[in-house]
């Protein structure tokens, strides 16, 4: 990492330009040039950036600069600013710079470990820590802890990925027609709601905060920025796929029964599961269950629904109604957040948001505010808002699920066969034959397409 004369000149210009290009309003950073914002995150002997700034900047800077290039620039500024390229370094003049830079790297690897799945990031990390250890050998333990914790986080992620891939493979290999149902496997709606919460929290914990911002980057790729550079994970997509699987599992369980009384029993069972999900604070499973019962192959079963005690279902639908921008749901979510903040028991800390709406809110925040303001400065007020919302999400991620695992139930939910849209429709017509001309024609078309 030797700094040649050209780089030295660039860094001098960089530092000179950054001195007067941060704008504060009422004591809060509101905008700045990219160079100035990078300079603001670099620690010195007597300065260390605020933790909230570190998170907000590392989160949103990837809209303008790739993480490996950012870390390279941070390293260059450190080398130039502290004269680390000299053969003889006066350690006394560096003060607390060594502990400060190690602490910054520790926070980066803790907050955004997936950045370091990129080999270029690992290389920069090794280079700067080795340079620091040459000057501060007494920091070897702290550096080792940073490396150990990073490796542990990345290893855990790879293990969870392997587990999910195994579950997906088992699901794909499962026989098409279920031989049992969820009520036989798990008679208690409360226990199923608890097991769904296990799945939700596990998948929630895998999502890196940067993935939300990287989703916004997709539309801003240039010839110099490849998809590989900005996205190393697909946990957002996997979480949405889980929501869809649960919805289709609900519909599959209902339409698998040819006897009306069994379908009624299954619908009322899932209504009770959804109610328990609300009590737990698991709104994502709740929404997936309601979505499954609102799929057309289920809603068309008029004779079945006529026998269902719908009062509880109507209450659930009202609470999750999209009217007034999901106003009722947002009130429920706020109540769950208040409960979580004052909770003593782990079970009261659980908040699993309706994920698609959470992502939609972030999307509209991103779309509604410009990344840059007049003069080309980066609009940091927007990034404070993004960081605030995603910080809440991180708090929800860190809750440990307190419920006992029921492996048989988990295995069933994750791997049992789920009908496709066409198979669901055909199963629905087997449950209740088509009555009007439109349904009769659709049934005929579906059977023809399926070769029946």
From TrEMBL:
What is the organism field in this record?
Answer: Lottia gigantea
Designated name of the protein? Ras-GEF domain-containing protein
CDD domains registered for this protein in UniProt: RasGEF, REM
Q: Tell me which PROSITE patterns the record gives.
A: RASGEF (PS00720), RASGEF_CAT (PS50009), RASGEF_NTER (PS50212)
Keywords for this entry?
Guanine-nucleotide releasing factor
Its domain of life? Eukaryota
Instruction: Write one Gene Ontology MF term.
Output: guanyl-nucleotide exchange factor activity
Q: Which residues form the N-terminal Ras-GEF domain?
A: 25-155
Q: Which InterPro entries match?
A: Ras-like_GEF, Ras-like_Gua-exchang_fac_N, Ras_G-nucl-exch_fac_CS, Ras_GEF_dom_sf, RASGEF_cat_dom, RASGEF_cat_dom_sf
